Structure prediction request, 664 residues.
Amino acid sequence: MANISDVVRLSGVSKSTVSRVINNYPHISKEKKERVLKAMEELGYTPNLSARRLRGQFTTTIGVIVPRIVNPFFSNLVDAIEKVSYQNGYQTIICQSNLDKEKELTFLNLLKTKQADGIIMTAIENDWLAVEPFTEYGPIVLCNEYVSDANANVSMIRLDQFKGAYMGVKHLIERGHRKIAYCTGGSFTDIDKDNDRNLGYRKALEEAGIEINPNWIILNQHTIQDGKKVMKYLLELKDRPTAVFTGSDEVAGGILSAAKQYGFSIPGDLAIVGFDDQPAAELLDPGLTTIRQPVDQMGKKAVEVLVGHLNNAGMATATYELPIELVIREST
Amino acid sequence: MANISDVVRLSGVSKSTVSRVINNYPHISKEKKERVLKAMEELGYTPNLSARRLRGQFTTTIGVIVPRIVNPFFSNLVDAIEKVSYQNGYQTIICQSNLDKEKELTFLNLLKTKQADGIIMTAIENDWLAVEPFTEYGPIVLCNEYVSDANANVSMIRLDQFKGAYMGVKHLIERGHRKIAYCTGGSFTDIDKDNDRNLGYRKALEEAGIEINPNWIILNQHTIQDGKKVMKYLLELKDRPTAVFTGSDEVAGGILSAAKQYGFSIPGDLAIVGFDDQPAAELLDPGLTTIRQPVDQMGKKAVEVLVGHLNNAGMATATYELPIELVIREST
DNA sequence: TTGTAAGCGTTATCAA
DNA sequence: TTGATAACGCTTACAA
Prediction:
């Protein structure tokens, strides 16, 4: 594999000049520059990134941490991030944490070990206090995820999850429902990270003078399979809800599918609201009413903010809130 | 950020000894080993991967090239690969080629520049001849994709795509269809990479004495949106097919959704077969008949084979064929 | 505008 | 079993 010395030999200029050509320095004589470029071409030379990383300031690489890439919400987010990064001249390295705290920390080491200039976290498994120390080594941007610690000094791209849940539940209430189940990926406690959605659910019910029925709060649901089990659970309830508000389209899809199997009419016997507006949401029958998260915008903004921090170390952190939207289809 | 010299200072042993501890060399005195470990612990030391890569043989990293991560088939494949790699002590770096030849070559440079020990390609945009030279720098394994060049010296994990298409089309014929459209991601030429599927389609028709109608061959379709357009196109045809065999569940889903909108009954007015058996396939209504590709197995096998090549440079390349299966649901 | 030389954090070779 | 030292490929003072 050709290295910089080979280019030096072939072009007959010094190492520094070659390096300057590689890095597009302004003051090089045309003649030498061309000789170098020609030599690089001829040798099929590519700078060794490990060496650059070891020596230099920049890796032109950003890391993206996702919990589960198979979740379409995240694969779409990653897609958006990857495209914009590429346009900005950054390589993306995608890391799947699988909801594993340890693994998340391992990935954060990319920063410490200068494999990435900055990191976008689309979820955060550890406490912010455990993540914070890594910011010493490079900027971290939170995208889709956020921490409520007022002292946290990070840029965040967030959605108004409170409003999302509130809109969804309120929509069900307006459709006449008063028995509304809530199916979340989190644990419905105050410290929980889905807290904002929980509050939205609570608020909407409260406003309508409806009390929460603990039997209708279903925790830690993530997949299509989970959704099917939820439906089974609902079926066995004596007092059944007439509607269910869900933390993800995947779970909603599972519920919808199982409900039809049990002979439920939707939304007649059970109204369903999802979350995310994943591509499949409109393919379901009936089409799934859901909360649209502007994934592409979020990804784009996250990269822009991260690149901003990278180009200007002093840039103040900020929180950006993107609009969230209720998409009404036939499942409600 | 602590480096090896800091550990040297704190532990009072030489750099080489520290390095030996890091790399688990056998002959070190217990006492020194412990001192080193303690120092590393205390300093929160992590070896700098760039330096290791620059100096050493191994990066304990493998690259995975996918065309589009948003395609659930690929995100599931990546998921499987990532998990097995992690178990084997390898970091995975996921690269999205976006069907771009240039970008693919850029990613292949990971090998040249020692950022990855080996690469798994789940699709291949360039000719094998353009990719081949990279194998000089490390093993490449083809997973899901393959090249028919008999001289190609690569390990491949492949599915019998011919059989997959053949089974799907034959199934339609057995259901009484004779007007069967074919919707592919490729271009239906002999040199095309979807060639095997094309042949399967051809063969099944041929056996039943059915001639191919060129109007029913629809090329370059990939997304849900594409599927919807396909349905619109079919609608405008004077002589319409009664069934359509499709190269992906996404496209099939789009067709199915649009068909229902136009008032078609499925499978009565139009039978549909997908490809992949993506999670959403069973959620559609009617459930989508499709060709199941054993994604998890494929990913696992790919990693195993790659690790094999890595541990044993002399290992002969081989082709592994995994079973493919027809999943019959209600859309046919 | 160009070149020389030091150094980034490791591992491998050699000698002790 | 341990340590000194060179080398990996690059960037960047500094000097010219």
Notes: Chain B touches chain A at residues 1, 46-51, 53-54, 68-70, 72, 75-76, 78-79, 82-83, 86, 92-94, 96, 98, 103, 109, 112-115, 137, 224, 250, 253-254, 256-257, 260, 279-280, 282-285 (CB under 8 Å). The CA atoms of residues 20 and 26 of chain B lie 8 Å apart.
